[in-house]
Amino acid sequence: MTGEVSSLPGVSALPVASASSAIGLYARKTAGFDERLAHTKQLLQQAWGQHGARLLQSTSLGAEDMVITALIAELQLPIAVATLDTGRLHPETLALLPQIEARYGIKAEVYAPVADAVVHFVRARGLDAMYESLALRKECCGIRKLEPLSRMLNGRSAWITGLRREQSANRAEVPDTELDAQGRVKVNALADWSWADVWYFISTFEVPYNVLHDQFMPSIGCAPCTRAIAVGEDFRAGRWWWEDENAKECGLHKAHSNEELKESGATA
Ligand code: SF4
Q1: Is residue 2 part of a domain?
Q2: Considering the domain boundaries, does residue 265 fall inside one?
């Protein structure tokens, strides 16, 4: 990678690495990093070549997605970057949107839930109904995430995510490319990256990141559904921590098998 992303116009306050910062704790160059980085760049370039303007990056504004946005900018690929503002995000998460624009000149598209649906749900079930049952949690995710995601992906043939195999047992088989439930190609551009890789890249190329990562939140979602993890806990232990391990997905990443992708000839 070139040094193009080493200056930080418009970014006033990057987190400072210390022994307890995410960079201090995790950033490490391990064997094969350069090859994994080259592979990711190739995946992004291939996806753009195959899908063009029908491709977008769906960013949660988490560490992995910030790496992907930085690479899209470095490769000068005119790929749309889009995020979901569920209405329950931490202010620290939303603070990354102007940083992305200032740093990379990329104005992320923001998709919000339908206001009437949120009001109706909150009036009927309460603001924090997600703690009451799995069904209510999924209903909240459906209104605040899945419906806006379907609008985000409308008209797109492919999307880029930051899913990694290392993130959880549920994601251990994540392929580089797969099909989502609607048959779009999903490019998991960092599928084989480690957490050390992610932070080595962020540290080396001074990528803006969510300061909550410095507070032991490796996986950050909505504020009511994210907590810090303790030493020894799994990567996603702070997400929907009151639920059974197997339920810990919001439905954004339900996919068809890679076999269907191969049969379709849509591999990126
Ligand atoms: S993560 Fe929590 S607050 Fe966000 S949409 Fe799902 S249940 Fe609702």
Answers
A1: no
A2: no
Residue 170: inside a domain: yes
Residue nearest to atom 4 of ligand 1 (CA): 222
The protein residue whose alpha carbon is closest to atom 1 in ligand 1 is: 222
Query: Residue 240 Cα, ligand 1 centroid: separation in angstroms?
Result: 9
Calpha distance 266→139 (Å, rounded): 32
Residue-wise pLDDT for 215-231, tens only, equals 999 999 999 999 999 88
Name the phi and psi angles at 186, rounded to 5: -110, 120
Task: Give residue 147's domain range.
Answer: 22-255
The tokens of 42 are what?
Answer: 């190739």
- 22, 31, 216 from 25: Cα distances, Å: 5, 18, 10
CATH number at 198 reads 3.40.50.620
Q: Which residues are catalytic?
A: 250
DSSP codes joined into one string, 71-138: HHHHTT---EEEEE--S-B-HHHHTHHHHHHHHH----EEE---HHHHHHHHHHH-TTGGGT-HHHHH
Q: Are 161 and 188 in contact (CB under 8 A)?
A: yes
> Binding residue per annotation — 140?
yes
pLDDT digits (tens, 9 = 90+) for 98-156: 999 999 999 999 999 999 999 999 999 999 999 999 999 999 999 999 999 999 999 99
- DSSP helix/strand/coil, 212: helix
28 falls within a domain: yes
Q: What domain count does the chain have?
A: 1
Can you tell me which residue has the tokens 């899945």?
Answer: 146
Measured by CA distance, the residue closest to atom 6 of ligand 1 is 141
CB of 89 shorter than 6 A to ligand 1: no
Total-model pTM: 0.86
